[in-house]
């Protein structure tokens, strides 16, 4: 039950991060500052996705179960990158997309690795 809730949260966060990724400092939503891209959702992904994995690892006995929020998050990003709603491209093809992918996936992969290490008893004396 808890793992399913964490997977739903990962899906919702991925969708929100994708839709707010193109934010710019253009004076409409954010203050005007030379129309510079402001991908604040990269920071959100960097903080929340590993927390979801850590939360799942508290209930998990298997690595796949602990990594489920990460896999849902990645799958949602890839799904919307290929099949956007109504045929639209949601994931821009520039540095912000790579930063979002790295910011969400790499710390989460470290959290999965920590779970695997705890399962194997690495570091126990």
Summary, kept brief:
With 125 residues, the protein is mainly alpha-helical. The protein has one domain. It is 67% helix and 7% strand.
Notable traits:
mainly alpha; 125 residues; two-stranded antiparallel sheet; 5 helices; single chain
Write the layout of secondary structure elements.
Elements (H helix, E strand, L loop, with lengths): L1 H19 L3 E3 L5 E6 L2 H20 L3 H4 L1 H15 L12 H26 L5
Antiparallel strand pairs: 1-2
Architecture overview:
The chain has five helices and two strands. By secondary structure, the chain is mainly α. The chain has one domain. A hairpin with a 5-residue loop joins strand 1 and strand 2. The longest helix is centred in the C-terminal third of the chain and has 26 residues, at 95-120. The chain is elongated. It starts with a helix and ends in a 5-residue tail after the last helix. The model has no long low-confidence stretch (mean pLDDT 88).
Strand content: 5-15%
First-to-last CA distance? 34 Å
Order of helices and strands: HEEHHHH
What best-fitting shape do the alpha-carbon axes yield?
Answer: elongated
Provide the spatial order of strands within the biggest beta sheet: 1-2
Uncertain segments: none
Number of extended strands: 2
**Largest beta-sheet details:** 2 strands, antiparallel
Counting structural domains, the number is: 1
**Class from secondary-structure proportions:** mainly alpha
Backbone CA Rg: 16 Å
């Amino acid at each position: 039950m808890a793992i399913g809730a964490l997977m739903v949260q990962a899906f919702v966060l991925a969708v929100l991060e994708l839709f707010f990724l193109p934010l710019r400092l253009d004076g409409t939503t954010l203050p005007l500052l030379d129309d510079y891209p402001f991908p604040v959702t990269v920071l959100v992904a960097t903080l929340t996705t590993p927390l979801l994995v850590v939360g799942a690892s508290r209930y998990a006995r298997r690595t796949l179960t602990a990594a489920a929020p990460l896999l849902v998050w990645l799958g949602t990003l890839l799904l919307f990158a290929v099949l956007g709603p109504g045929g639209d491209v949601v994931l821009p093809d520039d540095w912000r997309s790579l930063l979002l992918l790295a910011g969400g996936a790499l710390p989460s992969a470290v959290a999965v690795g920590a779970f695997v290490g705890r399962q194997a008893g690495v570091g126990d004396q």
